[in-house]
Amino acid sequence: MADAGTAARVATRSRENTRARLMDAAMEVFAEVGMDGASVEAVCERAGFTRGAFYSNFESKDELFLELAARVADVRVQSVKQRVAELAEAGAFSAHPTDVPTILEQVLDLGADDRMGVLLMAEIRIHALRDRDVAKAFLAQDAEMHRNVTQIIADIGRVKEICFRIDADQAARLMLTVWESAAVRAVIRGLSDSQLRLEVGRQLAAVAQLFLEP
User: How far apart are CA 147 and CA 168, in angstroms?
Assistant: First the structure.
């Protein structure tokens, strides 16, 4: 029985590794050529698997795309939560009130934000406009991210005893809108990943200044 259990665990890990490699490969291919331009064969070739391995894990390219969209969304939300925890541990939230724009910039300055990630999110948005399932996944991610950033802004306001010109919910939506548009423009301009993050951070800091009371 122990041998059977071990074999089952090994098989489960193997299947999970296969799915992960297929999703990693799909992320690269989708970002490079878009979902419509990506074929199952291209994903399999990039991952080093056969079509049989693909269809033993996913019913279709659409199913893979939806799972990938959910994974990207979860990574972005978890990145924000982790950054907040790191800043809190470092004592950033107890700093001088004039550091608020810098804190907000640091919260949204995610190391995961790079050209590939921006391209993939753009692809997800395009398909969310056309596909209800993708739209549902995208809106769920967007709402979760919005809730997280709203809570961060509200917490900063309470801890630092400052006032905002607009409520935390509106401020979060404004910050996220600027974040997304600045990242897309940076990619269009051909900026490197490090330049992309610097540019996004600069614009976030500038926007934060607009909704802080003097």
Answer: 10
Q: For the segment 194-213, what is each residue's pLDDT rounded down to a tens digit?
A: 888 888 888 888 888 888 77
Mean pLDDT of the residues in the chain: 81
Tally of domains in the chain? 2
Range of the domain at 41: 1-58
Cα angle, residue 142 at apex, residues 36 and 43 outer, rounded to 5° = 30
Place of tokens 């056969």: 50
Residues 103 and 131 in one domain: yes
Average pLDDT over residues 101-115: 65
Q: How far is CA 213 from CA 97, 151, 204, in A?
A: 11, 19, 16
Distance, in Å, from the CA atom of 184 to the CA atom of 53, rounded to the nearest integer, reads 34
In the chain, the largest separation of any two C-alpha atoms, in whole Å, equals 70
Amino acid identity, position 10:
V
Do 108 and 187 have their domain in common? yes
Which residues neighbour 91 within 8 Å (Cβ) at sequence distance 6 or greater?
Answer: none
Is residue 175 within 8 A of residue 212, CB to CB? The reply is no
Residue 115: CATH number of its domain: 1.10.357
Query: Do 95 and 54 belong to one domain?
Result: no
Q: Give the domain-ending residue among 58, 73, 91.
A: 58
Average pLDDT over residues 117-127: 85
**48 burial via Cβ count (<10 Å: 0-12, 13-18, 19+):** exposed
Residue reference for tokens 């993050």:
197
State whether 75 and 108 are in the same domain.
Answer: yes
pTM, 2 dp: 0.74
